[in-house]
Write a structure and sequence with these properties.
By secondary structure, the protein is of the alpha+beta class. 54% of the residues lie in helices and 20% in strands. It has a two-stranded antiparallel sheet. A hairpin with a 5-residue loop joins strand 1 and strand 2. Helix 1 crosses helix 2. It is globular and about 40 Å long.
């Protein structure tokens, strides 16, 4: 099974997709779910919502900003 810290990139990706969807369709997605199954069939579930969703959205937007600053 994966430790919570090992799925940070998935959380950032989830926030990126949700924010892109919100922009394109003028919507307000503020919750996402990551589902994973280990090789030994142990199911894992992460729900990102509220302040945690805002945190990962901020991490995403900071990465976007840093990318454009480096150009």
């Amino acid at each position: 099974p994966k430790k919570d810290a090992w799925v940070d990139d998935y959380k950032i990706q989830l926030a990126a997709y949700a924010n892109a969807h919100n922009k394109m369709f003028d919507s307000k997605i503020q919750t996402g779910v990551i589902l994973m199954c280990s090789r030994d069939l142990q199911f894992q579930y992460w729900e990102i919502t509220g302040d945690e969703f805002d945190h990962w959205s901020d991490v995403w937007w900071n990465r976007v900003y840093e990318f454009y600053q480096s150009q």
